[in-house]
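JOB MANIFEST
job_type = single_chain_structure
chain_count = 1
residues = 63
[input]
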Amino acid sequence: MGFSAPSLTEMPSCLAKRNIHVEVTEQPANRYWTFQWVETAISAALAALLAGVGFWRIRGRLA
């Protein structure tokens, strides 16, 4: 079941025919750096966890 819209202006009517709904939410601009720091903290924590697991696994094989 493929479909294509001939132009970008016809896209809303094409989506409406197929009962497809798109929801867009926006965040206030003053939250930008908060989101950046949260994302950085999550990424750093996951990287540290992965490094710890890798170190533990390698050290266990060498012993």
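[summary]
The helical segments are 11-17, 32-62.
The chain has a mean pLDDT of 87.
exit_status = 0
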